[in-house]
Design a protein that fits this description.
416 residues, alpha/beta, elongated, binds pyridoxal-5'-phosphate
């Protein structure tokens, strides 16, 4: 998708019309820098692919949960896919229309269910029989009916990293198609439930449309069976998962992805298609800025030690994922093979391994690309490190959307 907002101009790496170097100097590092334009472009690509048909793009909040990002999505007319009560609170705070919120996740608590019922969300994506029972009981105790979609596990291989494949039959997610059918029949007569749709989410960082198509076909069969049993669905949620170009991956355009759903619209006109993209909306829309502390040369390796580590961006450590790294000043220097690492006391703390980078010196700043999704949202305070600030750039203006944490923040709520 759109990474073109990050470009060198006169030797400086820019985000839109702002020099990343200036942001690092004025706000310090590590620093997450998001581009409004990139987020909008990526989000609008989904909307444009579905114009003229009923659809809802429910941005997956867990990819990047900052209120300013949710507000941006809300202004674009988008909804939210949430996976916790905390994410519900965020979406409501950003004034996202509750009728554009869907609630996913295998471990919803009764408290979270009650909060979402009171808010009046569009659908609970239910992942098991016991969850369905608890949801019905919770709804009845509040004198309501819970709108439900069952999350089906279509057993398709998304051909992605095992940690982010969720639609295989061995996965903890979703229900086998046969069991889902039986549960729909039960739910039909349940006074606490209102059947509204069917849902699946097969995985993340998918680089082809085929697995989506396979999943869609399985859901279509189920929908036809349900129709024959007198159950008509209004919503078909196909989850998120379209990948981004971290390191030369070829990602099909969103329009091609939307084509995968043509058969569904043909068979069920009037059906609302829901998509829950996260990574493909924000992933390429942000960089993480880190500053070089030391260039440490050992007999075996050369380490560029930066002030950003796995607590700030865990993807390289967790998934072995590749993030392009570039200096914020275009350096005409020879390339050297280095490991870019953080200050955390773990050997697994690295941002890049055996990477050819122009020689960088202490005090110089690097931009870690593709950091927008599962970057800040997966950050932690490990090693008692305050989490980075987040800024949102728009043209030549920028706004701090989350202040850098302080050591006071680190001990909030603690006592001795
Ligand atoms: C994480 C998640 C998404 C978003 O996935 P991306 O790969 O970021 O698009 C969508 N739906 C559900 C249920 C998820 O868990």
């Amino acid at each position: 998708m759109d990474a073109s907002v990050f470009n060198y101009r006169n030797g400086d790496l820019m985000v839109e019309d702002i020099r990343l170097r200036s942001l690092a100097e004025s706000l310090g590092t590590p620093l997450y820098v998001y581009s409004t334009q990139a987020i909008q472009t990526n989000f609008r690509a989904y909307q444009q692919a579905f114009v003229g048909r009923p659809y809802l793009i429910a941005y997956s909040v867990k990819a990047a949960s900052n209120l300013a990002i949710l507000r941006l999505i809300q202004r674009e007319g988008g909804g939210c896919d949430i996976v916790s009560g905390g994410e519900l609170a965020r979406a409501l705070k950003a004034e996202v229309d509750p009728q554009k919120i869907v609630f996913s996740g295998v471990g919803k608590t009764a408290l979270e269910m009650a909060a979402a019922l009171k808010a009046g969300i569009l659908s609970f994506n239910v992942e098991s029989a016991p969850e369905l029972r608890l949801l019905s009981a919770t709804a009845q105790s509040l004198g309501r009916k819970a709108p439900i979609s069952l999350r089906v596990n279509p057993d398709v291989d998304p051909q992605t990293h095992p940690y982010v494949a969720t639609g295989l039959r061995e996965s903890k997610f979703g229900l086998p198609v046969g069991e889902a059918y039986q549960l729909y029949l039960q739910a039909k007569n349940d006074p606490g439930l209102e059947i509204v749709g069917v849902d699946c989410h097969i995985g993340s960082q998918l680089t082809s449309v085929g697995p989506f198509q396979a999943a869609a076909e399985r859901l279509l069969v189920l929908m036809s069976q349900l129709k024959a049993a007198g159950i008509n669905l209004k919503l078909l949620d196909l989850g998120g998962g379209l990948g981004i170009d971290y390191h030369g991956e070829k990602i099909p355009p969103v329009a091609e992805y939307a084509q995968a759903f043509r058969a569904i619209y043909a068979a069920f006109p009037g059906l609302t298609i829901i998509l829950e993209p996260g990574r493909s909306v924000v992933g390429a829309a942000a960089v993480l800025l880190v500053t070089v502390l030391y260039d440490k040369i050992t007999p075996y390796k050369r380490f560029i030690i930066t002030d950003g580590g796995m607590n700030d961006l865990i993807r390289p450590s967790l998934y072995g994922s590749y993030h392009v790294i570039k200096p914020v000043k275009d350096l005409d220097r020879p390339l050297t093979q280095v490991n870019v690492v953080g200050p955390i006391c773990e050997s697994g703390d690295f941002l890049a391994q055996d990477r050819a980078l122009p020689l960088v010196e202490a005090g110089e700043t690097l931009a870690v690309f593709g950091a927008g999704a599962y970057g800040f949202s997966m950050s932690s305070n490990y090693n008692s490190r305050p989490r980075p600030a987040e800024v949102l750039v728009s043209g030549s203006t920028c706004r701090v959307i989350r202040a850098r944490e302080t050591s006071e923040d680190l001990i909030r709520g603690e006592s001795f």
